[in-house]
Amino acid sequence: LRVRHRLQKNGFGGPSPRFPLGNIEEMKKKQEGVTPLEFADSIISHDIHSNVFPYFARWQKAHGKVFVYWLGTEPFLYVADPEFLKRMSTGVLGKSWGKPNVFKHDRQPMFGKGLVMVEGDEWVRHRHVITPAFSPANLKVMADLMMEPATKMLDKWTLMVNSGNPEIDFEREITTTAGEIIARTSFGLSNQNGREVFEKLRDMQITLFNSNRYVGVPFSKFMSPKQTLKAKKLGEEIDELLLSIISARKESILSGSPPQRDLLGLLLEGSLSDGRKGKSLTTKELVDECKTFFFGGHETTALALTWTLLLLALHPDWQEQLREEIQEVVGDKTLDYPMLSALRKMGWVMNEALRLYSPAPNAQRQAREDIRVDDLVIPNGTNMWIDVVAMHHDPALWGEDVNEFRPERFKDDINGGCKHKMGFLPFGFGGRMCVGRNLTTMEYKVVLTLILTRFSFSLSPAYRHSPSILLSLRPRHGLPLIIHPL
Ligand code: HEM
């Protein structure tokens, strides 16, 4: 009540919470008045905000683009106004932001004390070691690591088509392939331990996904005890396997062998050479970073590709434009890193897909001190929920064609013509912006190039358009496509 009064005194309105669930009941309730997304003749709407976040859309109407809602006993400042976001974040350093404590228990098995979770000087140290590993110079060599799993997936499709089955669930296919790619680029899959880590990480992901908790509600962590225990056990097994991989790698570097050119190899190299300046990561921290890359990196990238294939299936003219670009840039040569940046139209398509269907539908913060925004004060401890889907679909920021697929809006402007430079945030904002965005762009372009070179595709009649928030923004019923070999 004290916190609520303080927020109200500062002028932040919002829906009335009830103890102990806050506004969760209203959020879980079956929503009425939701805009339909599918019409006759297979016409599909991209106007998804009020469909995926009906409660936010409704509260926005009553309380504007900045208000407070409650997950259990935790206040969340909802922000869908980029100007407010700018004023709120100006002057707050990356290291001074917190991540909501209330999510930490749930995220612990996935991220441990990896970059996504750490704060303050710890975050500065982790980010210092990790950022160089993702530089274009280091990523260059990873294009090859990506081609093999992608080619394997396409070879399987060819076999399917040849045996008379041209329908694939692209979401499922690409999630498996992206998992394999991130495991190869993070810690390698060449030995048995790497493969086992990969299998267990996937198992853990499914387990966590199935434990549907009431985040923020007192004692909710004691719900889903079976899944919690299973995730804990898997977490311990994964840690042990990764520890043995890291120890073997360290020994091999110390005995003079060159480090492997994957992210773990680069982090080990950075840690060993920077160790004297106190800017290294411990073995346990390296374990957590490997898990962080896996969980932070593969599903998001798979979803960026999934939504892209939906959009390209609906716009065969853009499939053709991209194929022409690939022909100009790659021709009969083998795809390599320098070619990727020349695939400019593909870059626009990626941005437009990330705008319409942002795999990370929100960014989150927690104030670790009182934050002044003009004459308002956001009290220390307030959580923040930045509604990226709302901003990406706001006609006031993008114009009346906001819900149309128009990749060319990114032709001359990396911000896609958005009226506010903080209105396009697929990778977050400020010092804590996604560290893996270069890797993602590379993977996206490698995989999409290979697909478009070998197949054209259209939407299966079985597709049901139902974008849903299941941690990330996903197609609830997958993405069935009919593929046609070229
Ligand atoms: C389409 C793909 C991706 C999307 C949409 C995405 C999105 C995001 C977002 C929204 C954040 C939070 C930023 C913030 O709070 O301001 C983030 C952070 C992060 N991402 Fe990504 N990401 C993607 C791919 C990747 C990949 C491939 C990796 C690693 C291999 C990765 C690793 C991370 C890490 C470690 C952070 C935490 C950064 C920090 O707190 O300093 N992401 N990402």
From TrEMBL:
| Cofactor(s), names only, from the UniProt record | heme
Molecular-function GO terms, alphabetical = heme binding; iron ion binding; monooxygenase activity; oxidoreductase activity, acting on paired donors, with incorporation or reduction of molecular oxygen
Q: Which residues are recorded as binding heme? A: C434
| Domain of life of the organism encoding this protein | Eukaryota
| Keyword set, alphabetical order | Heme, Iron, Membrane, Metal-binding, Monooxygenase, Oxidoreductase, Signal, Transmembrane, Transmembrane helix
How this chain sits in the membrane, per its record, is: Single-pass membrane protein
Is this entry keyworded Heme?
yes
UniProt GO cellular component terms = membrane
Q: Name one Pfam family in it.
A: p450
State the similarity comment. Answer: Belongs to the cytochrome P450 family.
What's the name of the protein? Cytochrome P450
Q: Which organism is it from?
A: Rubroshorea leprosula
Q: What does the record give as the organism's lineage? A: Eukaryota, Viridiplantae, Streptophyta, Embryophyta, Tracheophyta
